């Protein structure tokens, strides 16, 4: 997977998910937002990445095999495309104008999240 610029994880992950229109290999993968822990930097950050149906993380921003831990909510392609029209920064953390509805009341909006494994 090609890497995007560091500091632009939400856009990098969104670009991968929206490729399903032109590249069916990505159809089964889900956009995920949440927190990622980088042990090399000892930082917990708001982050976005892609997950396979098996829960394997594909991070289009950070280098592979970094030992990072991920915890987040996955979204369907429809939720991502609809949500980004309403909150273009990020679905969970950037939707301040609407009062963070997914962050504060996310029951029924998100797919179950199995434990993530970095490939």
Textual characterization of the structure:
The protein has helices at residues 9-17, 77-86, 101-104, and strands at 30-38, 43-51, 56-58, 69-75, 117-118. Helices cover 19% and strands 25% of the residues. The termini are close together. The relative contact order is 0.21. β1 (30-38) and β2 form a beta hairpin. It is an alpha+beta fold and 119 residues long. The chain is globular, with a radius of gyration of 13 Å. The protein contains three helices and five strands.
Quick summary:
19% of the residues lie in helices and 25% in strands. By secondary structure, the protein is an alpha+beta fold.
Radius of gyration: 13 Å
Please state how the strands of the largest beta sheet are arranged side by side.
4-1-2-3-5
In DSSP terms (H or I, runs of 4 or more residues), the helix count works out at 3
Cα distance spanning the termini: 12 Å
Low-confidence stretches: none
Percent of residues in β-strands: 25-35%
Gross geometry: globular
Quaternary assembly: single chain
- Indicate the percent of residues in helices: 10-25%
Quantity of strands, as a count? 5
Largest sheet data = 5 strands, mixed
Mean pLDDT: 78
């Amino acid at each position: 997977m090609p890497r995007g610029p560091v500091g632009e994880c939400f856009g990098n992950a969104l670009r991968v998910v929206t490729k399903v229109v032109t590249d069916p290999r990505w159809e089964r993968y889900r956009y995920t937002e949440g927190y990622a822990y980088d042990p090399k930097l000892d930082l917990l950050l708001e982050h976005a990445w892609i997950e396979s149906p098996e829960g394997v993380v594909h991070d289009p921003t950070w280098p592979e095999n970094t030992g990072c831990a991920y915890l987040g909510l996955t979204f369907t392609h429809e939720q991502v495309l609809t949500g980004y029209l309403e909150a273009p920064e990020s679905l969970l953390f950037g939707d301040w104008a609407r009062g963070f509805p997914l962050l504060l009341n996310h029951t029924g909006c998100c797919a179950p999240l199995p434990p993530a494994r970095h490939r």
